[in-house]
Amino acid sequence: MMGFFEASNWQLHAGADGLYVKYRSYMNHELPADTPSVLHLAKREIAWLAESRTRALLPTAKGRDRLMHVERALAFGLREVDRAAIAAALAAERRQWVATRKRGRRRFADYPVRLDGEDLRVRLRRPRHALQWLGRHYPMRAAIERDRGAIGKAPQAEQESMLLELAESGRSFDAIALARQLYGYDLKDAEEFVEQLAGRR
Questions:
Q1: What is the Cα–Cα distance from 45 to 131, expressed in whole angstroms?
Q2: How many domains does the chain have?
Q3: Under a CB-based contact definition with an 8 Å cutoff, are residues 144 and 55 in contact?
Q4: Gyration radius of the chain's alpha carbons
Q5: pLDDT truncated to tens, each residue of the chain (201 aa)?
Q6: Does residue 176 contact residue 187 with C-beta atoms inside 8 Å?
Q7: What is the domain range of residue 25?
Q8: How far is 96 from 110, CA to CA, in rounded Å?
Q9: C-alpha to C-alpha distance for 166 and 65, rounded to whole angstroms
């Protein structure tokens, strides 16, 4: 957890020429420090900013569903941007983590930045705080609400998508607990299942 407090642990940096977005999580500190890990977005490339909130109903051990915030993020509307280059940079980060993962040790990577359709999403603990300042410099949109419904009643593909989203956002314990509730796995089988899902990416 000490990495959380290090000066190198930042996600957004605002400059006169635009915004810098760090797509490497402090949790992936084992990746080579001399490899690319930052995107630069010029002011003209940012069409708008908005808070993004994803919710879902997740099953509990008592057989009840509970409302849970799955993700809070800052959404960037992009324009005149090479999305293929951004996608390639994010994919390279994934490949690096797979290549450096220690054998025989279960670890789940954390990917705080992703492309979602035409938009870029940066997961933040408190996106509203960032918007309070950035809103003075960039166009704003209303918050984007996404409701994924009751995951326990969803098709398996949707359930696996939720498990992967949790695992890749630094919440592997939540993903494993959800797999146990959905499929009746014991701890070991749930860990292996979630790890296999992450390995497909």
A1: 17
A2: 1
A3: no
A4: 18
A5: 334 434 467 899 998 899 999 999 887 877 888 888 999 999 999 999 999 999 998 887 777 778 787 789 999 999 999 999 999 999 998 888 777 665 445 467 789 999 988 899 999 988 999 999 998 999 999 999 999 999 999 999 999 999 998 988 888 889 999 999 999 999 999 999 998 887 766
A6: yes
A7: 2-199
A8: 12
A9: 17
